Amino acid sequence: MSDFDSSAAVFKSRAKKLATLMATGEERAKLWRPDELAAIFRHQMSAPMLVDLGSFDSRTATKLRTLSEAQGLLLKSFADLFHHPAPPIELLELIKDFAKANMDHPESGLPDEIAAALYYTSIAAALVRLDVRISHLPDADLQRGLRWTMEQAWLDEKTKELLAKALGKVSGGQKGAVS
Amino acid sequence: MASEPSKSSIFPRTDWAELGKAAAADEVLLDRLIRLYWQPLKIYLVATFPGLKNQADTLLQDFAEDKMLKEGWLRRADQNRGRFRDFLKTSLRNFVLNRLNLAEVKNPPISMEELEHELPQPDAPSEEFDLVWARTMLAETLRRMEVDCKNPGEDQPRRSYIWEIFRIRLLEPIFNDAAQPSYDQLIDQFGLKSPTDASNTLLSAKRIFKAHLSKVIKEYAGQDAATAAEIQALEDFLIRLAKRG
Asked: Residue A97: which of A59, A143, A135, A149 has the closest Cα?
């Protein structure tokens, strides 16, 4: 392990580096690089939903399995659900709640950025595929969230397209039925 | 500050003794703070009194031992401390002015040229003072964090390499423009279980950094609200300075 003289480093550095160091104190800021977030998001999108959502409780796991099977489809991953032409709304709501729980939990293993992306993508899928609003967020907040998610470099193009369509619906005043 | 209470003192004897103990502790703290922030204070002194450059260290030494400073500091302990940096600068300026006045009395006459040479600069810019102050504060924060993390007495699993992960993943890239290692590399290097394990370790490191940052600043800022305000003020100052290039 090399010796790092932190005092020397601080005293020879310009204000920009010192400001970056002070911002380090913001806990969850910049824990992940964009390429790492891309890998985590890809993994999350392809991961079996049953593993993550089923961890809520056994009743939820059963409901989840039932909903997936009732569709006669192999809805196994988050990506399958988001890009399905008619996803079950209960599943989208489950994902939204799962994502929100992770965003609010300080000890969550899921990066905040990923949880936020899942949150807004589930809302977007409901808006675009079902014309239903599964969120009570005011329009301005929802637009902000959708826009933020779309701007993430690590997001795949297909999900960005979904978010863009949802943003168009919200911006165009199409609120959809509220679930 | 352990003077005996006068008969007219409103403080009962035992309270005065307690106050004396607290005052002594505060004096030690004040002395330590002045020595820690010696460099920015010297910069301010020389910028304000350019003619006294060669006497700066001696003046600062005397300033650190000045009784009036200690009394002023203790009075501030009862109030919202405001900006400690400003308090020190004002106190130092007044201390030096007082010294100059005494010198004038002891060694008259003094020529106008000499007097003008020693007059303080009109409110010398404090940017360099604030920058060196920020550097001193951050260097002390990192020093304490490293000592803390490497303390074998700490009863926390894996604390010894929390500093190393913090150094490799954050400090080296910030200060030495080193490439930021991936979490996969950190997993291999430190035998961690997963990228989440690695990020949680880094999160712990950030919390330790923030705790020490707050502690270092609280030593001079005092109350929690003043500490938070000082952290924000220093961050805003550095960002402003960084934007100017």
From this structure: A135
Residue in the block written with tokens 């675009």 = A128
State the best of B186, B189, B238 to mutate against chain A, taking most chain A CBs within 10 Å.
Answer: B238
pLDDT value of position B225:
82
Q: How many helices (H) and strands (E) does chain A have?
A: 10, 2
Q: How far apart are CA B147 and CA B150, in angstroms?
A: 5
Q: Does B53 touch chain A (CB under 8 A)?
A: no
Tens of pLDDT, residues B119-165: 555 555 678 899 999 999 999 999 999 999 988 666 666 677 899 99
Q: Inter-chain contact A24–B206, Cβ cutoff 8 Å?
A: yes
User: CA-CA distance, A172 to B180, in Å (whole number)?
Assistant: 42
Cα angle value B171/A19/B141 (rounded, 5°): 60
Contact list, B138 vs chain A (CB under 8 Å): 10, 18, 21-22
A vs B, Cβ pairs < 8 A, gives 88
Contact A111 B242 (CB under 8 A): no
The DSSP code for A106 is: T
**With contacts defined as CB-CB under 8 Å, which chain A residues touch B234?**
22
What pLDDT score does B145 carry? 95
Cβ-defined contact of B207 to A27 (cutoff 8 Å): yes
Model confidence band, residue A141 (pLDDT cutoffs 50, 70, 90): very high
Higher pLDDT, B16 or B242: B242
Pair of tokens at residue A175:
């609120």
Under DSSP, the state recorded for A157 is: H
Chain B residues inside the 8 Å CB shell of A38: none
Q: Phi, psi (5° rounding) for residue A177?
A: -70, 145
Give the percent of chain B with pLDDT over 70.
74
DSSP classification of residue B54:
G
**Integer CA distances (angstroms), A174 to A111, A145, A165, B61, in order:** 31, 17, 11, 72
The yes-or-no verdict on residue A167 having pLDDT over 90 is: yes
First to last CA, chain A: 56
**How do residues B38-86 score in pLDDT, each as one tens digit?**
999 999 999 999 999 999 999 998 988 886 677 777 666 545 555 788 8
Q: How many CA atoms lie within 13 A of A8 on its CB side?
A: 5
Domain regions of chain A by residue span: 32-178
